[in-house]
């Protein structure tokens, strides 16, 4: 906590001196904190000169395959005309036979078409200020073995800026739920579905269920909520002292609105103040200190690609998000609710609340992991996701490769 206090005191001192206020950078600095806190982005603390750090970042940009996996690209238009980008990974070989149905799961017969068992389609929804590449490790594990759809939410990644937002309308979680419906209609018009959402993506899935419960009852065979919340986000302390939390909640929306009108200045400010706020931003990304630097830089690049005006548009939607009752639509379905126990953005207690509403779901709290748990502990997340896919495939009598079944069995055997 001493590191956080030091940084906050530095901002206060700079602000009181008027130097940052005159330069217009104090708002940019707060924008960095707000954007980083919301997206959970990692920036390594600079302990060397800026030039050396720049070279190190360039080296990290070429290190590892993170974010390089691509599928078949497509687009679909949202209700307001926003072009939504998605990619589909198809099954590369003949699918395995479906296993006998296990347990009593409803809806299984609804998935069959003329006696055939269509494959599962897994639809991944990413979080705030991220993009579909945040599922890199899950995509690598599932690639070629299960049909999967990865999409960029409006104004994120390769999707277009939201037309409603460009016209001055606020971004809402309900609108994201309708966007997900458009993607599903285009990319997976029939067959059983498994919906997977991280952070804002999990909220999107909840909004989708609230607005399209019949589709969920007819086609959804499983659901996974990773590091997300069904509501009460205004009460999250962000790991700060009470006074700092109150100040952040009061100041952040207004500051971000102003920053959204000064994009060029703020983007320069974000770059200029990156080192100062590196320690604060890192806290909201990962729970451990031994994360691969390449993974940390990969997460940093995702936040860098999200314009500050997009950050400003979406931020207010989270305090308005209340979808606890929508979880009932998923009741009795195979499910996974997973969170890191050091997640400061959507604390694991929020996942516990979701799990209480979904008693048939597996509830997993990952020790030592933060908000980007799927990047921080990919092997564990992949194993539990494979277990969910196995259960969902059996409920829908859909084919699933034996390798994925074995991976899921390993997670079940661990009992974690």
TrEMBL record:
Residues 121-378 form the AB hydrolase-1 domain. InterPro entries: AB_hydrolase, AB_hydrolase_1, AB_hydrolase_fold. The chain crosses the membrane at residues 20-43. The keyword Transmembrane applies. The keyword Transmembrane applies. Keywords: Hydrolase, Membrane, Transmembrane, Transmembrane helix. This is Alpha/beta hydrolase. It comes from Actinacidiphila oryziradicis.
